[in-house]
Amino acid sequence: MPEPLPPAEFAALLVRAGIALPEREAEDLRLAHPRLLAMLATLRDPPPAAEEEPAFTFAAGDEA
Q1: By Cβ atoms counted within 10 A, which residue in 8, 10, 56, 62 is the most buried?
Q2: Which of 45, 26, 44, 33 is nearest to 1 (CA)?
Q3: 31: closest CA among 64, 63, 1?
Q4: What domain of life (predicted)?
Q5: CA pair distance 14, 16, nearest whole angstrom
Q6: What global pTM score does this model have?
């Protein structure tokens, strides 16, 4: 997992995005940022077509 961004760099990102947070919340978000990047890396790109998803191929009860 990547290291958190330096506080000054993360603060600059918040300013650029127009996000104003209390210092404590900004620090929590800065520390969570690497975990968010790791989670985003697990998403499939491009997403699968709807017909490839199991939820769209299963029918139960009256739907069958």
Answers
A1: 10
A2: 33
A3: 1
A4: Bacteria
A5: 5
A6: 0.61
1, part of any domain: no
CA dihedral 30, 31, 33, 35 (to 10 degrees): -170
Total domains present in the chain = 1
CA–CA gap between residue 29 and residue 35 (Å, rounded): 10
| Structural domain containing residue 49 | 7-58
Give CA–CA dist 59/64, Å, rounded. Answer: 5
CB distance 52 to 24 below 8 Å:
no
Tens of pLDDT, residue by residue, the chain (64 residues) = 779 999 999 999 999 999 999 999 999 999 999 999 888 888 877 877 777 777 656 666 665 5
